[in-house]
Amino acid sequence: MARRLPPFAALRAFEAAARAGSLADAAEELLISSSAVSHQIKSLETFVSARLFVREQTGLKLTEIGEKYLEGLGDALDRIEASTLSVMQNTKNGGLTIHLFQSLAQMWLIPHLDDFLSANPEISVKLITKPDDIEFSGSSIDIDIRYGMTAPEEHTCEKLIDEVIAPVVSPDYLRHNGPIETPEDLLGRRLIGCDYVPHEWDFWFEKMGVQDSNQTPKLMFDSRSHALLAASEGMGVAMNRRPYGDILLKRGSLITPFAGEVRTGGAYYFIAPKRSAGLARVKHFRAWLLSLCTGLGAE
Question: Where along the sequence do coiled-coil regions lie (predicted)?
Answer without folding.
Answer: none
